[in-house]
Amino acid sequence: MYITQMRIQNYRNFKDLSMTFHPLANYLVGENDIGKSSFLRLVSFVTRARNVDEIEYDDPRQPIRIDLEVQLLEGKKEHFADTPDDHRQTIRVRLEMRVSDIVPRLYDLDTGEALPLETIRRLRYVSYSALSQEDAQVRPQVYRALERWLAQWEASHCGPIPQEERQYIQHEVNVGTFDSSYYECIFYLSRILCRSNRHRADNLKFISLAALRVITQIYQMAHSLAVPLEHNIIVDKDGHRYLPLIISIDEPEIHLHPYMQRSILEYYQQLLHNEDAQFCALLKDLFGLDGLRGQLFVVTHSTDSLIDDYRNIVRLYRNPRGQVRAACGSSFHVKREIEKHLIMHFPEVKEALYARSVILVEGETEFGCFQLFGQKVGVPFDYYGICLINARGESSIAKIKKLLEYFQLPVVALYDADVKEAHAKEKGVYFTQGICFEQDLAQTMLLKGKRQALDRIIDSACGSTGRTSADMIKRACHKLQLDPQDYPPGPLYKAKAHNGAPLWVPYFAWLYSNKGVILGRLIGQSLERQEVPPAFTRVIKEAGRLATV
To answer: Please, are residues 220 and 226 in contact by the beta-carbon 8 Å criterion?
Structure first.
């Protein structure tokens, strides 16, 4: 079971917001205070079929409306345990709340027929936030009951407990703030799930804690009289019983280093997709369940937490009128060949999802100097929220730009002028004045009378006196369509303009053959504001303008 689509009207920042979701995992990103955590809170209210506080209404005089499309069952031979004759695979419903209502009203979107709230309560929701203490809200009696169950299960499956591990768990009990049964449960789960090989490591504490949170919630569901567990259980054609769960995690980056962030999120997905055989066996023995069917929602400000697939991303942004909108990766429709490139380049552009505008450059030297250029021209990238991306070649710029524009990100791309004919009609595209970045740099520095400064940059990059070789000259002249005989190789400080051969060519030859991030940083640190080539200044200022729109 999973939510496929949702439309939200009149809830907090969401005047009218439509979203499409991936069936397995969805990562919500966007600027601060745009409504990511508010969305998770709304899902909690929806799945419990409860009204929200008046302060949650954008306009209290109007109702909040939430339109949902939910995939209930995977086939016509499946059913819920309490309704064996109902095989509906999908439902489209509207949950409507008014300030004066004690509980919301539920309607069938296709027929307008009023539906019982139990229909929406088939969705069971489990939330976790690093900023709140969900674990502390669980009664100690629950952990004690689970401790007894887990102790029996562990004794019959795992054998005797080594003394060193027993001493460690006693230490946790002594210094912890929860009931001792809480720590005992984590300890037993670490052994049951075969993770006690490093019993003092983070993986025991956090991976086992993830499993405990899920088991604790299922235990409470199984003992709840408000919504019987049978109301939620799906039975397939072979009689296997599955509990559908929606799990949300708000800001996993708090208290967790990057590896653990990814490990925890991956483990939650393993639990929801029944990829941990021991955990499934535990569910079978404790609750009579053959597994879970789940959908994961993650709110994060950390690129370390993000999955490397654009299809799992939901980016919230504001349109020109200030209204919140969503760009949902699962709804993008692209050709298979383009999709391959989008997935391949996505790890490079994850940081851009949090940006207010993006600059795309072709190579490493530009990447090394542009952020420093931004400081020189009065557009500091971090302050403006500008993300700089090295596309690693002209051919990748268009693909990365397309992906970013799918997510409604303002993009400025700088191409070398030698490809101007192929890209001149594209939106948000700029070109170097000369044939490429290195020509612009060499010409601008010499035109400004900064030859000695350019020599110092090159000498610093070389670690000795900069000089051109015959191969450098040949390669540069081939690019510029010049005769290499007019430019003898040698030390750059001795190079002279003669017989109509411009002085910038040997400097271009060296720069063109020695591209790199380190060189770029030296250039960025060394140039003054008036020495930054005009083409680069235009790109940076346009990115700054887009970031403030």
So the answer is: no
> In whole angstroms, what is the distance from residue 112 CA to residue 224 CA?
31
Is 90 within 8 Å of 70 (Cβ atoms)?
A: yes
Contact 292, 283 (CB under 8 A): yes
Kindly provide the b/e burial profile for residues 15-31, where b requires at least 16 CB atoms within 10 angstroms of the residue's own CB.
bebebbbbebbbbbbbe
pLDDT for residue 199: 46
Beta strands in 109-263 (DSSP E): 114-115, 125-129, 234-235, 241-250
**Residue 54: closest CA among 102, 107, 117:** 102
Distance CA 217, CA 211 (A): 10
Task: Report the Cα 35 to chain-centroid distance in Å.
Answer: 16
Q: Please tell me the total number of residues recorded for the chain in this structure.
A: 549
CB atoms within 10 A of CB 410: 19
d(CA 404, CA 385): 15
Q: What one-character-per-residue DSSP string does 372-437 give? A: HHHHHTT--HHHHTEEEEE-SSHHHHHHHHHHHHHTT--EEEEE-GGGHHHHTTSTTEEE-SSSSH
What global pTM score does this model have? 0.89
On average, the pLDDT of the chain sits at 89
Percent of the chain with pLDDT over 90: 66
Rounded Cα gap, residues 489 and 173, in angstroms: 74
Find the largest Cα–Cα distance for the chain: 95
Contact between 467 and 528 (Cβ < 8 Å):
no
Residue 3, strand partner residues? 70
Contacting residues for 321 by C-beta, under 8 A, at least 6 apart: none
- Residue 67, φ and ψ in degrees, nearest 5: -95, 130
Q: What percent of the chain has pLDDT over 70?
A: 93
- pLDDT band at 349, cuts 50/70/90? confident
Comparing CA positions, the residue from 373, 369, 423 lying closest to residue 394 is 423
> Residue 333: is its pLDDT beyond 90?
no
Q: Is residue 239's pLDDT more than 60?
A: yes
b/e per residue, 144-158, with b = 16+ CB within 10 A? bebbebbbebbeeee
Closest CA to 513 of 483, 489, 540, 485: 489
Whether the per-residue pLDDT at 317 is higher than 60: the answer is yes
DSSP 501: B
Residues 253, 261 contacting (CB under 8 angstroms): yes
Provide the CB-side half-sphere exposure for 64 (13 A, CA): 29
pLDDT at residue 167, as a whole number: 67
Contact 212, 189 (CB under 8 A): yes
- Do 231 and 258 meet the contact criterion of CB atoms below 8 Å apart? no
CB 526 within 8 A of CB 459: no
Taking only the tens place, the pLDDT of each residue in 448-496 is 999 999 999 999 998 889 999 999 999 999 999 999 999 999 999 999 8
For residue 205, pLDDT over 80 is answered with: no
The Cβ of residue 207 has, within 10 Å, a number of other Cβ atoms equal to 24
